[in-house]
Each structure stands twice: as structure tokens, then as C-alpha cells.
């Protein structure tokens, strides 16, 4: 019996080895070498010593924070509303549906919408508003990023709120709590796990949204992803590119620690 | 559980069969190696009819693959997965490939049509005596604008780009050397400058240009200019030719003073298997009529002097695409900067992209 169990584990461990462990080790390894292949700590010294990369890191974190915050503000009421509906699975499906469409395709669609002659500007034209430059602004970048991340926030929130027994709310109200009190003392704390996994699912990918910074931000919005691409494709300084990769991995670990399950235990 | 074991055995069998299949396939293509010509070129950078013509004339089968950046091409040739017989790197990349011993020395006796190339485009600094390369197309870096919104007089020099009226209007091509080059050229400095003081001055000057940047993108400029999302851009002449075909309001100008002069060149990588075919192909492309046909299709400037007479006068008399020899003398070809300065240019460019006032 035991023999088969180990057999079943083979694909999983192979996967772990080749697609999780090996890449991470390689990225960390590369980050300690310079362009001529000598061991060095200079990549890290430059990263933390130059204002440029720190500013870029700050930019990335700031944009990722804004994206996460806006998605959360939109998703929470949406998810809450969805749990109250009759055919919730259908409504949820409709929210998930756009994720079936290729990301690039959606980004290009937004280029059409935000263009000077695009849909949004002609719509504003009806109200006598002159065409505005919408593309290549923080505004359009945030809108598109939020749009793309929205389903990944709504799903965990929906699941968390769905698990919440209605009797808890009834009990809270019976005992004289107002709606606001019920929300902050009962509903929100119990859905915190959903919030945490939603934040993880949105914040981490948002740190390196490099394709959107180019297509929608026109490279006027710069995040660490842009720098990684440059180091690997143009200057071919893989060491420095890998260093940024390591910093991103560490940032993600930190986010995971802050939003991890362990903390959720302390109600 | 028995099922599982047979499933595993089945998978292993299939893997084994597939492996044998690839070995067999590789050997079978290897046998006809002499008849296949592997070309590695930029996307949409040859008239497909010429490939058919070449195949008919010589009996070779052409295998055409494309790349989208010099660096990507370099990586693939270095890895050596496919042995390409022809590649089309730009000037500075030839220098780099030469240094890394990736190119085959050309035997000029096998290229009689080389005489058709304009002497002013031969023996250039990036490849003296054309030991390794033959120019394919050339062009410049300049400004393209829409005459509905601007006049030619607004874009006489690079300094005109700093005009406050252009705030948030200009699209720049996404390249460190091009963007830094605008700063250097506007101060009359070399585009290949390795002088830190010059670079710092260019950087400080370019900071004031960033508010005018609407976006820093690459291929998308073509669409944005053609559909008038943007009305002025800094781009390469070849790209400009493409845009002007789609929108007749667009005009290309080369600002006074220095600018980048670029060349894409045919080379034979050292790993080539069909060298004879590669020579035949280069010679075929150097034929005046073929070169003219290709030029009309691509829209870039041809270095083939003999081909000019087969081209419409409207193309060859256009000073923006075929500038005078005196004008060309003022322009500069990019040199391989070496890793240290390549990184410095890119770092400054990255900082400029981030800079906001």
C-alpha cells in the first residue's frame, strides 16, 4: 500500500523540484554574480545603496497598495451583496467570466476605450467635455489593474462571507447590536481570512505588473518589473535582474507573513 | 492500483517512442541539410515573394524565422539550438558578435553583386572592409508629426522638442540609446559618448523633456500615430515609412545636427550549415531588381545604389529617406558601448522614465 502512495507523490515532487525549487535557487544564485561571472555582493549593495531602486521599490509597493485598496473597497460590498442573492453561483460566474479572456486582449481593449478618439472620450463628449488624455496616466493604469484583479479579490471574500452562518447576524441583532456594530464586531472579523487571502492574491501580482505599465501606463508608470525586463533583455546583466527578483520574493514572503493564517487565529 | 502501474508504463512507453521519433526526424532533416536554408530575420522584413523566387531559382527550401530584438537574436544564436545560415543584426550588434567570434568571415569572391552597394555604405567602422557583413537596409532616427496639428518649422532641431507647448504630446521610442541620444545630439555631443560629464549633462537636460513625453513605447507608436491618438513621435525612419503609408498627414523629418544612422546587415553565423546557400541568398538579395522590389515592399532605405534606378523617383528623391552624403556625414552609427556604459545609459534612461516633476 505504501509503495503506491510514494508513486502518487512523484509528479508533485518533480513539479516542486523543477518548477519551484530550481527556479528560486537559480534566481538567488544569479543575484550573487556579476556580468563576468565572479561572485559579488555588489548587486545588493547597489540595490540598497542607490536611491533609484529604492524609489522604484517604493513606487511598486505604492501602486500595488493602491490597487489592492481599491479592489478591496469595490469587492467587499460586491461579495456581500452576492451572498444575499438567489442564484449566487450564476452571478459569481459572471464575475469570473472575464478571467477566461486573455489578459493582453483585455489590455488592448482598454487602449481602445481610453484613447483620445475612444469610447470613454466620445461618451464624455455628449456632456460637452473635451477629449482628455486618459491613456498613459496613473488613472487609467489603476483602473485597468483594478479591473483585472477584481475577480481574485471577490472570490475569497465571497467564500468567506458565504460560510458565515446567518444565525450569527440574527443573534447579534437580537442582542441589540446596530447594523454597524454587527458589521464591525461580527461580519468583518469573521470574514478576515477572506480579506487576507484576497489581499495576497491581489497585492503580490500587482508588485510586478510590467505589461500593464507599458501598454496602459506607456512606461510613464515604472515598477520593478520594468527594471527586471531591462536587465535581462537589454543590458544582459542577469545578476542585477535576479537581485530585483530576490527582493520581490522577499517582499512576497513578508506579505504572506503579515496575512498568514497564524495571525488569523488571534481574534 | 494495477491500473496505475500500467498507466505509468504506458506514459514511459509514449515518452520513449516520442524520443525515438525526434531522433529519427532530426536525422531525416539532417540528410537534406544542404537543401534547407535557415534565415533568422526581423519580423516582416523581406518581401515573401522574393523568398518564393529564391526557392524556385535555386531549389533550396527556405526556413524563415523571426526575432524582435538584437539581443534576443544574439541569445538564440549563442545557444545554437537551430543553426541559422543567415541572420540580420544591426550595426552595434555586429561589433559585439564579432568580439564573441560568432560570425563567419565573408568570401567576397562568392558575392559578385556586392559591387552594387553604394561605396559610402561600405567599409563602415562597425565592420571594416565588410569582412563579416553586407548592408541590408539603413535609416535614421528622426521626428514624425501630423500636419493637421504641427508645421515642419516646429521641428527643425532636437531642441525644438523641449517646447513647452508639446507638454504631454510626444511619443518616444523605448530605447536607452535613442532617448539619451536626443539629449547628447541636442548638445552637439557624440551619441557614443563615454564621457561621464556629458552623460550627466544630457541627463539633466532630458529631465526637462520628460513632461513632454506622452508615452515611451515601441511598436505601438505605429498604430498611435496612424490613428491620430498621438500627433508627434520620435522614431526610426523605417517605422516612419510604415506609418506614412497608413496616414497621409504624417511627415518625417531629420532634425538638424547629429542623429543616429543605423544599418541592418546580412551576416552568416559561424554555426551555419548551408554556407553555399547563404552566399547564394546574399548575392540574390544584392541583385538590383530584387533589392528594389524588397525596398518597395519594406519601405526602408536601401544601400543598393544600382537598385535606385528601379525605384520610383518619389521615393529616391525624398531627402528625409535618402539624405545627401554631406548630411549622412553628420550622423553617427551606434558603437557597442561595452557592458559598463551600456548599463550607465540604461540606468540613466530608467531614472528619466521615473522622473516626474
Automatic annotation (TrEMBL), chain A:
GO terms for cellular component: plasma membrane. This is 2-aminoethylphosphonate ABC transporter, permease protein. It is a multi-pass membrane protein. Residues 57-259 form the ABC transmembrane type-1 domain. Its main location: membrane. It comes from the Bacteria. Belongs to the binding-protein-dependent transport system permease family. CysTW subfamily. GO terms for biological process: transmembrane transport. Keywords: Cell membrane, Membrane, Transmembrane, Transmembrane helix, Transport. The chain crosses the membrane at residues 12-33, 61-82, 89-105, 111-130, 139-158, 198-217, 238-258. InterPro entries: MetI-like (IPR000515), MetI-like_sf (IPR035906). It is found in: Cell membrane.
TrEMBL record, chain B:
It is found in: Periplasm. SUPFAM superfamilies: Periplasmic binding protein-like II (SSF53850). It comes from the Bacteria. Transmembrane segments: none annotated. CDD domains: PBP2_PotD_PotF_like_2 (cd13663). Keywords: Periplasm, Signal, Transport. This is 2-aminoethylphosphonate ABC transporter, 2-aminoethylphosphonate binding protein, phnS. The lineage of its organism: Bacteria, Bacillati, Bacillota, Bacilli, Lactobacillales.
Amino acid at each position: 500500500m505504501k509503495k503506491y502512495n510514494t508513486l502518487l507523490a512523484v509528479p508533485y515532487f518533480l513539479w516542486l523540484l523543477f518548477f519551484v525549487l530550481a527556479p528560486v535557487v537559480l534566481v538567488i544564485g544569479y543575484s550573487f554574480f556579476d556580468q563576468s561571472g565572479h561572485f559579488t555582493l555588489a548587486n545588493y549593495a547597489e540595490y540598497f545603496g542607490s536611491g533609484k531602486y529604492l524609489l522604484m521599490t517604493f513606487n511598486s509597493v505604492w501602486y500595488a497598495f493602491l490597487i489592492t485598496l481599491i479592489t478591496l473597497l469595490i469587492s467587499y460590498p460586491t461579495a456581500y451583496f452576492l451572498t444575499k442573492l438567489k442564484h449566487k453561483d450564476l452571478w459569481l460566474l459572471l464575475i469570473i467570466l472575464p478571467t477566461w479572456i486573455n489578459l493582453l486582449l483585455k489590455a488592448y481593449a482598454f487602449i481602445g476605450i481610453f484613447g483620445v478618439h475612444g469610447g470613454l472620450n466620445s461618451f464624455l463628449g455628449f456632456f460637452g467635455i473635451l477629449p482628455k488624455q486618459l491613456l498613459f496616466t496613473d488613472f487609467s493604469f489603476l483602473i485597468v489593474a483594478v479591473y483585472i484583479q477584481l475577480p481574485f479579490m471577490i472570490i475569497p471574500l465571497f467564500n468567506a462571507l458565504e460560510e458565515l452562518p446567518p444565525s450569527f447576524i440574527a443573534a447579534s441583532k437580537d442582542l441589540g447590536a446596530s447594523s454597524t456594530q454587527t458589521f464591525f464586531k461580527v461580519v468583518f472579523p469573521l470574514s478576515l481570512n477572506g480579506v487576507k487571502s484576497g489581499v495576497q492574491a491581489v497585492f503580490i501580482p500587482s508588485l510586478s505588473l510590467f505589461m500593464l505599465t507599458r501598454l496602459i501606463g506607456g512606461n510613464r508608470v515604472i515598477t520593478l518589473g520594468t527594471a527586471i525586463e531591462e536587465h535581462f533583455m537589454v543590458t544582459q546583466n542577469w545578476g542585477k535582474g535576479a537581485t530585483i527578483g530576490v527582493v520581490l520574493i522577499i517582499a512576497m514572503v513578508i506579505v504572506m507573513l503579515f496575512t498568514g493564517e497564524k495571525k488569523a487565529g488571534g481574534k | 492500483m494495477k491500473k496505475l502501474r500500467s498507466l505509468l508504463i504506458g506514459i514511459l512507453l509514449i515518452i520513449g517512442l516520442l524520443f525515438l521519433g525526434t531522433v529519427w526526424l532530426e536525422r531525416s532533416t539532417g540528410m537534406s541539410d544542404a537543401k534547407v536554408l535557415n534565415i533568422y530575420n526581423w519580423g516582416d522584413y523581406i518581401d515573401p515573394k522574393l523568398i518564393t523566387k529564391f526557392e524556385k531559382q535555386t531549389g533550396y527550401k527556405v526556413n524563415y524565422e523571426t526575432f524582435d530584438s538584437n539581443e534576443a537574436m544574439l541569445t538564440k544564436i549563442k545557444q545554437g539550438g537551430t543553426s541559422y545560415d543567415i541572420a540580420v543584426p544591426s550595426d552595434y550588434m555586429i561589433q559585439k558578435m564579432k568580439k564573441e567570434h560568432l560570425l563567419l568571415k565573408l568570401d567576397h569572391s562568392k558575392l559578385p553583386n556586392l559591387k552594387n552597394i553604394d561605396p559610402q555604405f561600405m567599409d563602415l567602422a562597425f565592420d571594416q572592409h565588410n569582412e563579416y557583413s553586407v548592408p541590408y537596409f539603413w535609416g535614421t532616427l528622426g521626428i514624425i508629426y501630423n500636419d493637421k496639428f504641427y508645421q515642419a518649422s516646429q521641428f527643425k532641431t532636437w531642441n525644438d522638442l523641449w517646447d513647452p507647448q508639446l507638454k504631454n504630446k510626444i511619443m518616444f521610442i523605448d530605447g536607452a540609446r535613442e532617448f539619451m541620444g536626443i539629449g547628447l545630439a541636442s548638445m552637439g555631443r557624440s551619441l557614443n559618448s563615454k564621457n561621464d560629464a556629458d552623460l550627466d549633462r544630457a541627463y539633466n537636460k532630458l529631465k526637462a523633456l520628460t513632461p513632454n513625453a506622452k508615452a515611451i513605447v515601441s511598436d505601438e507608436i505605429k498604430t498611435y500615430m496612424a490613428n491620430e491618438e498621438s500627433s508627434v513621435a520620435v522614431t526610426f525612419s523605417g517605422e516612419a515609412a510604415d506609418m506614412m503609408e497608413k496616414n497621409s498627414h504624417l511627415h518625417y523629418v531629420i532634425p538638424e545636427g547629429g542623429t543616429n544612422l543605423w544599418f541592418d546587415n546580412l551576416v552568416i553565423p559561424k554555426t551555419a550549415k548551408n554556407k553555399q546557400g547563404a552566399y547564394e541568398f546574399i548575392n540574390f538579395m544584392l541583385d538590383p531588381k530584387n533589392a528594389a522590389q524588397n525596398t518597395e515592399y519594406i519601405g526602408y532605405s536601401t544601400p543598393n545604389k544600382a537598385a535606385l534606378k528601379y525605384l520610383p523617383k518619389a521615393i529616391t528623391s525624398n531627402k528625409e529617406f535618402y539624405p545627401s552624403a554631406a548630411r549622412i556625414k553628420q550622423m553617427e552609427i551606434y558603437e557597442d558601448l561595452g557592458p559598463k556604459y551600456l548599463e550607465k545609459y540604461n540606468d540613466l534612461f530608467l531614472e528619466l522614465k521615473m522622473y516626474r516633476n
